[in-house]
Amino acid sequence: MAANSAIPSPDDQSLDTIPPPGGGARGIYALAARIIAQASRSRPADEALRRTLRSARLSRVDSGVVRRLVFAYYRWRGLLDEPDNLPKALRQAGEIAAEFQSAPETFSGERLRAVAPGWVFSHLNASPEWLRALQREPPLWLRAKRGEADAVARALGNTRRGPLPDALLYSGDQDLYRTESFQNGNFEIQDLASQVVGWVCGPKPGETWWDACAGEGGKTIHLSGLMGNQGLIWASDRSDWRLARLRLRARRAGVYNYRARRWDGLAQPAPRTRFDGVLLDAPCSGVGTWQRNPQARWTTTPQEVKELAGVQRRLLDGAACAVKAGGRLIYSVCTLTRPETVEVKKAFESAHPDFAPLEITHPLEAGCRSDCVWLWPQNHQCNGMFIAAWRKRQPG
Questions:
Q1: Exposed (0-12), middle (13-18) or buried (19+): which is 133, by Cβ within 10 Å?
Q2: What is the pLDDT of residue 9?
Q3: Which of 1.10.357.20, 3.40.50.150, 2.70.70.10, 3.90.226.10 would CATH assign to domain 192-392?
Q4: Which range, of 30-44, 52-66, 156-170, averages the lowest pLDDT?
Q5: Which is it for strands 385-392 and 355-357: parallel, antiparallel or unpaired?
Q6: Following DSSP, what letter does each residue of 277-303 receive, concatenated?
Q7: Residue 259 β-bridge partners
Q8: For residue 159, which phi and psi values (nearest 5 degrees)?
Q9: Is 321 a catalytic residue?
Q10: Cα separation, 40 vs 42, whole angstroms
Q11: 367 to each of 165, 361, 362, 363, 371, how far by Cα in Å?
């Protein structure tokens, strides 16, 4: 499904009562409304969307339209006259989405302030450019296995090289999970911001690393590729089902230089090991993913941001103990709020004078060097991300 495909308008009949799905635009609007009605904080809209579309017998084109309509509702919720009146709200969201697609520059900064919750403006630099970027369809980035980018691009089509050696920007409408290249482990679906994290880590063949909050393993697999599958990576997470997914992904990608262990943030999974590098891709509010996940704008709270900042500090303290002298500690979060980024960095440096800030070359900005990396969707065409790095000082 092309990202810029238009959302159809419902027919002239009244939408005050939503009909059952099936049959043209009215059926599509009905299905979108049912998905939104099912969604909640505990059941994200994208999960409800996947489950509903699996059981609905729709063409790929119609499924794509339902998806865009659901996300248009959440992107433009703050501008809707009656957001809880789903029939009217969906129609209005589709109209605003079409208006924005046609002339995004006509949306003033003041009008755009409504597309994000009010609390966010005191927590980050919510510029009009950032708000405008949130309203666009997110790009779809792939990361090819080392040396396979050209072959993957030829196999998939509708693909162009990105600013990193293995990054590919995909604009086609295939089900990528069903392609031969994916099944053979030749590429992963991974946002460009997450790829940047791996390049900042810069692991070398033969080193020992700990991916402390590995999730389903996207960054673990990237670290292994950068290490040439040599050395050892300890991959940990508090969720057993995520580690199970990690093992499946690693097997498909041909990654074997890792050990997966559950970690609850307390005793490290390899207590006798001191690592050349530790990556802490910490749990966060996810504000950097609001372009891709617009529902989260209306479920995330400032209290959650505060609580997560405390969690991030505690996890950093635990990860720091595992770094050997001269080793590197990398902190990344897909958020842009000050409490979870610069304030966590400042608190860590105050509590750990044995770690020195490590100057980083920005992978997407030539000539830019700093002790932290900011990625913004309006500047880098990817999720928002913050990355900080330190090196543990040698004794004496």
A1: buried
A2: 56
A3: 3.40.50.150
A4: 52-66
A5: antiparallel
A6: EEEEE-----GGGTTT-GGGGGT--HH
A7: 234
A8: -140, 140
A9: no
A10: 5
A11: 17, 7, 8, 9, 14
Is residue 4 scored above 80 in pLDDT?
no
Q: Which two tokens stand for residue 83?
A: 């957001």
Cα gap 130→133, rounded to integer Å? 5
Both tokens of residue 22? Answer: 């099936």
Question: How much is the pLDDT for 146?
Answer: 94
334, 368, 372, 382: the catalytic one is 334
Question: How far is Cα 396 from Cα 324, in angstroms, rounded to an integer?
Answer: 14
Q: Which residue has the tokens 């089509």?
A: 157
Indicate the domain borders of the chain.
Answer: 24-102, 140-189, 192-392
Q: What tens digit of pLDDT does each residue of 222-260 get? A: 999 999 999 999 999 999 999 999 999 999 999 999 999
Instruction: Describe the chain by its helix, strand, coil percentages, rounded to 5.
Output: 45, 15, 40
Quick one: how far is CA 37 from the chain centroid?
A: 24
Complete DSSP assignment for 121-164:
GGTS---HHHHHHHTSPPPEEEEEPTT-HHHHHHHH-SEEE-SS
In single-letter form, the type of residue at position 371 comes to D
Are 341 and 386 contacting, i.e. CB atoms less than 8 angstroms apart? yes
pLDDT of res. 7? 64
Please give the CATH architecture assigned to the domain spanning 140-189.
2-Layer Sandwich (3.30)
Nearest CA among 170, 22, 137, 141 for reference residue 69: 137
Residues in the chain: 396
Q: What average pLDDT does range 298-312 have in this prediction?
A: 98
Helix (H, G, I), strand (E, B) or coil at 359: coil
**Average pLDDT value for the chain:** 92
Domains 140-189 and 192-392 share a fold: no
| Residue pLDDT, tens place only, 250-287 | 999 999 999 999 998 887 888 888 999 999 999 999 99
* Residue 244 half-sphere exposure toward CB, CA atoms < 13 A: 3
State the pairing for strand pair 360-361/385-392.
Answer: unpaired
The single residue listed with the structure tokens 């099944």 is: 183
Residues pairing with 329 in the sheet: 278, 390
